[in-house]
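Worked example

This section walks through a single chain of length 343. The input is the sequence exactly as stored; nothing has been trimmed or padded.
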Amino acid sequence: MPKIVRVSWDIVEIPQRVVFETARSKTSVSRAIIVKLKSDNGLIGRGEATPVEYVTGETEQTVQRDLAAMDEALRGQDVSAWRTVCATVRERLPESHTACAGLEIAAVDLFCQIHGLSMAQFFGGRKGSVVSDLTIPIVAPGLAFDLAREAAETYRHLKIKVGGPNRDEDLERVRQIHLGAPEAKLRIDANQGFEPEEAVEFVRKMNALGVSPEIVEQPVQKADIEGLRYVKENVPEPVLADEAAVNPRSVLKLLKLEAVDGVNIKLMKAGFTGALDIISMCQAAGKKLMIGCMLESPVGIGAGVHIACGTGAFDYLDLDGDVLGEPTGMEQNYTRSGETLSV
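Given that input, the structure is written out below as tokens.
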């Protein structure tokens, strides 16, 4: 069987269409790290390892260091033994979630090429397409209205970044988006920007405006598990963890403490192996599942589309990094028609 002969990577700069600001970060350019695993028969598997430091503690520099360290460790490994490849990566890089994710995605991509499968087929082939939301970052309310009105032509679900420095402006942004896209279902994501009581008050003010969000995502600090549970117990809408749900171990803690109604799985946090474990855990516990992204290139977005289609496991999808950024011209293993992503 084919063996791995090299680990390499490229960095792709992706200018954002609108400055992407959340409660924790602000950027006009995403720097995507494209991971490549080459086999001795000439095939190359592609993955992505684009880090967000406040989520996993990794940076562009640490990811590149870790990828370089795995070049020798993975040489000679059987491409078809993809679980062994992933286990090697996890054992060598136990705290490098994003670097591991990139290598896992590349390993599965290479496996699928060798065996003539799409990744969606590899993960079960449940669906041929899925529907994503579109994110509106922290912008002035007037611009939020314009972005929502434009998005309403195509998208039925909009995700709104809140938790900025001005709570009144956060609420006005929500109101303007509702006015601009009155038929859209809205999701709010605070990226840890609220205190527990603030989060509950904010949702109640949204309700008073006639807006009931589909979900309330990561309203409080990731370490504040009790705060998450407080919000969950005091708002009627589902409360989902994101930054607090990095890997299966952290998700297990959330489930044991009944702190959330669901979790947002991101491949840049959990990789494929962690995502599969979290899916099983949440399904067993009757919890909601979302799949999100971190301003990835079409490589990372494509991996998310394929596991979403393959497993059919997700209640909510936030796979919009490829439209938030300018076109890259990169080869894609999926197609997009507005909000619909197909394999």
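What to look for: The longest strand covers residues 4-21.
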